[in-house]
Amino acid sequence: MWNLARSAASNARRLRRFSSAIPRPSIVHKRGADILHDPWFNKDTGFPLTERDRLGLRGLLPPRIISFEQQHDRFMESYRSLEKNTLGQPHTVVSLAKWRILNRLHDRNETLYYRVLIDNIKDFAPIVYTPTVGLVCQNYSGLFRRPRGMYFSAKDKGEMMSMIYNWPAHQVDMIVLTDGSRILGLGDLGVQGIGIPIGKLDMYVAAAGINPQRILPVMLDVGTNNQNLLDNPLYLGLRQPRLEGEEYLSIVDEFMESVFTRWPKAIVQFEDFQMKWAFQTLQRYRKKYRMFNDDIQGTAGVALAGLFGSVRAQGRPLTDFVKQKIVVVGAGSAGLGVLKMAKEAVARMEGNAEQAASHQFFLLDKNGLVTKDRKEIDPAAAPFAKNPGEYGLTEGSSLLEVVKKVKPHVLLGLSGVGGVFDEEVLKAMRESDSPRPAIFAMSNPTMNAECTAADAFKHAGENIVFASGSPFENVDLGNGKVGHVNQANNMYLFPGIGLGTLLSGAHFISEGMLQAAAECLASYMTDEEIEKGIFYPSIDHIRDITAEVGAAVVQAAVADELAEGHDDIGPKELRLMSKEEVVEYVTRNMWGISNWKQSVHPPFQHLLATFQGSAST
Q1: Is the full-model pTM beyond 0.85?
Q2: What is the rounded CA–CA span in Å between residue 208 and residue 499?
Q3: Rounded distance between C-alpha atoms, residue 357 and residue 171, angstroms
Q4: pLDDT tens digits, one per residue of 14-26
Q5: What amino acid positions are annotated as catalytic residues?
Q6: Which of 294, 252, 246, 247 is CA-nearest to residue 270?
Q7: How many CB atoms neighbour CB 291 within 10 A?
Q8: For 460-490, b where at least 16 C-beta lie within 10 A, e where not — what string?
Q9: Helix runs in 86-207, H state only
Q10: Would the CA dihedral through 212, 214, 215, 221 be positive or negative?
Q11: Which of 203, 259, 300, 438 could bridge across to 337 with cysteines, CB 3.0–4.6 Å?
């Protein structure tokens, strides 16, 4: 099945590139400069003379017609020139310069923007997504030029049902929502956190082929507790402390009700909520609406795929996962999400979830090892609290002490604390009970990674397997050996979860659908790749991966009897599809791949202007 999916996606990609097929016409209710100022319809100098006459554009553009292909090449030349001209400048300056040039293109010509992003995903994903998106969020009030997405604030209480109809799209498939309370590992960034939904949805378009006319980034501004932002005269959000308790939940309730009243089949991805609200909103809405929390469930799925890969790297069967000792540093929503999904995986293998949790998982937060002696323990962390005295450890034992005494197979960080895996801790991992210890430094952005790849291979040994949340270069170990760096990033899963949910028509996202996504990703890599220490694929293959993950989610939705179908494909047709047919179904519905020629995106089409209800040709 997987080889078929890769072949289908590859063939579709070849068909897509610069297709000369005649697309369907699009009806445009605009004329003249209004078209040029609309990034969805604007084709810059690509309008042919017939369209310039129809649309009142003659004289508003230079006379030469520059094809879409030439515009694509010209932008890439400008981008490469920027790279050359910024050599030697600070990394933050270069990253923001790259983001600006892409953002300007996005503001002007969305078709060209998404084409450039899709064709150069490996180069541009780190710019529109992690790690650069964190830098953008930190500086968003100063970088802001034009609005993108919607903003709902505490001041809008009682008005959201009418506000949602201000969004011009008749249909929305995918919404990414944040309240800005915990942006990556950067903390409370308030309204500036809107950069996260924008970046995530760019990845939905590029990786999952979600139609860019049907996406909606949303900021839920309930205030901020970041005093630096409140004191910043350029800050664009509410200047008040964050709402708490029932006041906060009533705002989220109103938003969710409004969204699903207008778009009952939409999917909402919660992103970067602080831990208490991340778990509470997930529990509150997961069975009522089509929603999931990427920090809890997406991160957990990606991590679980990596954990399975680390077992395979030891040359052991996957069933040995139940014997792996795993130390998790970071008791936030992401760390607890990983432990919860890992516990469920062990429970399926062993049939005893409680024993699994106490036997192999070790959780540390800023106060050290979490044990049952911990006062005021968080309910979500309680199942993973150790009995005092196990392995000679006590409440609050340090990370170094835990690593030395437990000798874990896996050291996984989601702490948001850069460098917490220091030289001593990494050297202690040399005594791991695993022949190939696994080190996961998964915090974002790069400066918050628990360690660098170079330090991990230098101090923990060349036989380790390594993964990080943000990208690092592979490490030259000498003598022709390479220490492979795996990017354990949620982009491998959340696009497929969203796409699979959309195409299955599932009325909520089940644990089975999430587990299927993680297991699909884990099975993607060959034994030869795993032996080399490679257990996540190259981002170059993100479309192929998403097609497979999406198909696995569709099949799980069918198995869980949640699938209601999508468009002209009903639940009966989905049940009768073979694995190969599901992959083909998913691939066929990815915007910008197999259906690029038939896309509803206007700049690929002949534009017909309409005035007073009749078409002008």
Answers
A1: yes
A2: 6
A3: 43
A4: 433 333 344 556 7
A5: 129, 200
A6: 294
A7: 24
A8: bbeebbbbbbbbbebbeeeeeeebbbbbbbb
A9: 91-108, 110-119, 121-128, 132-138, 140-143, 160-163, 195-203
A10: positive
A11: 300
